Amino acid sequence: MSVFNTSTSHDITPVKGSARQLDGMPADLTRPSHYPVEALCLECGQPVRCERWFLGGWAHIERFSNPEGS
Description:
The structure is a single chain. The protein is an all-beta fold. The protein has one domain. The chain has strands at about 5, 10, 20, 35-40, 45-50, 60. It has a four-stranded antiparallel beta sheet, with no helix packed on it. A two-stranded antiparallel ribbon has the order 1-2. The relative contact order is 0.28.
């Protein structure tokens, strides 16, 4: 799952297994009820977030919502 983000110069691919729900629990990217989710970007190692399942795009964020996040 790779989505191009127009605010950066690289595709955003979340690191496998790094996706978390906002409460810090592991997220299943195939379950709409787990969104929004945050993860680590495979390309740059920075936090990324996807607001909604299916048509939601990944975007870089300044920091994780949950300090114990991914």
